[in-house]
Amino acid sequence: MVNKLSKAEKKIAYDAKLCQLLDEYSQILIAAADNVGSNQLQNIRRGLRGDSVVLMGKNTMMKRSVRIHSEKTGNKAFLNLIPLLQGNVGLIFTKGDLKEVSEEVAKYKVGAPARVGLVAPIDVVVPPGNTGLDPSQTSFFQVLNIPTKINKGTVEIITPVELIKKGDKVGSSEAALLAKLGIRPFSYGLVVLSAYDNGSVFSPEVLDLTEDDLVGKFAAGVSMIASLSLATSYPTLAAAPHMFINAYKNVLAVAVATEYSYPQAEKVKEFLEDPSKFAVAAAPVTAASSGGAPAAAKEEEKKEEPAEESDDDMGFSLFD
Predict the structure, then answer these.
(1) pTM for the whole structure
(2) N or C: which end of the chain has fewer CB within 10 A?
């Protein structure tokens, strides 16, 4: 005979397992398990086997175990898990990359029919086309105001129809029609709600951030600090380069406006007094380019002169 554990013994075993996992793993994904069946959960466990462990349980039991284990170990970071244990959730303990584990969990989604009273997670649109139903089934379409026509003895939907909107409850007529059409509009699986890493809790969207995103956010933060520092004249490392440049501009402006000078300002003053000095280098180039055409013309004249002399030496013209 197989001895069945009592409820008290099951609670003790569960508490021991949860505490062991808390000590062994420093990373945890908190995932919602609404509408996830036992077979689907087993497939997820098999897919994550190796680096991750999925643990489900009652929230009250998990909160109690976490609180007591935190007091025993003195690790207050575990208490950050307690506010996350709301609703139908499970814990995924992992030693792998949180982003990769989250993506692996998202793969195990199963299509599900629209059951009566269920809140639609997405919009449900019935596509146009032949339904394969006989004309006696047109009452379903009429109740839902779906335009149809009879084509070759079957009901055909003329235009796409938004049957259910996201957030609405599925009615009996909608559920019956979708079942007759063989449409399973919804898909369910574990949905990661939060991530826990060594006491830090953050949204799963953080896992999608790339290095470029982080650099961009850091640069934006530095820019804001620099702007605030400059506006309040409060020195910071972010604003220091701008402050030095602005200070140098002020000193240079004073030197230009007065007789006070220093080596770095001499060249600026010289330029302001006589800008033509800085354009001298370009003059020879202009002269050479402008003088090129007359020189070429003179060369052409020299080439033509011998030809004219040779004609005169002939001693006759066309009229002789």
Answers:
(1) 0.58
(2) N
